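Hey, I'm writing a tutorial for new members on how sequence and structure tokens pair up, and I'd like a real worked example in the thread rather than a made-up one. If someone can provide the structure for the chain below, I'll link this post from the tutorial.
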Amino acid sequence: MNLDELIEPAERLWDFFVTSFHAADIADPLISFDTETEPAQVHTAMVSRGQDVAGIREGGLVTRYRRRDGDTPGDRGDALPIRPEQVVHGETPLHLVIGRLADEPFLFVRTLGEVNGVIHPAGIEKPPGRMWLFGMVTLLDMRATVAIDLVYANQPWREHLAPGRLAKAEALRAERLRRGHPCRLEECLQLSDKVQLLARNGHFCSVTQVESRRQFKVRVKELESLRNNLAHAQDLVPHDWPIIVTLATDLDRMLLRPRLQTLRDEIIAAPDPRGPAVTNP
């Protein structure tokens, strides 16, 4: 299999996947009231509907909001204006929405020119959000396999893994072959093993700008925990929220955003397949 045959499917799937899930997929309808509505009445409606944010309409459009603080109605002061940074379009890609939620407790969603939805971190628990997360982790795993094929095309890699980890991969491959599913050994490695191999290669660290191999490995362990929680239908927020944000931001910088072609081109042009020395712990 040549390099283009390895790279193109991974890139095509990535480009398709990150543009297929949007803010509207994890949003909730925003209840709203005219500006003349008494704050106590707004609060009572929020409590009865289990909402902690309500829009306030001026001239027929939502321009302000009130938050629910506790379950006791009363005058909560003036409604707050909606800031531009609190608003995303309904078609905003999901990874950008999550990045924004790292800085805001909730976001308003604008569709058809008006604010009519709201997103909280818990929205990622909805089926589209869980599908996106599981797909992102799976794509990350897939791209790591392709990266290994690139950086270890002309050098051995088995010697860099502990015997026990290598034995598990060999056993998994044997079982897949027994069931009639052809596969390569690197496809049977755990994600943490793949990252261990990649973090040892100077080309990979150079292209992805990995600053700390140890921190990178910690993040991948957290990703594996997230994948397990997704597979077993466990709640994700708040426990997995930090790694979800990382998946949408930091890991995008370290592994997902750099195009695999860039990695391929650097390896082809370099005199040493191992790349520059890796010294970061």
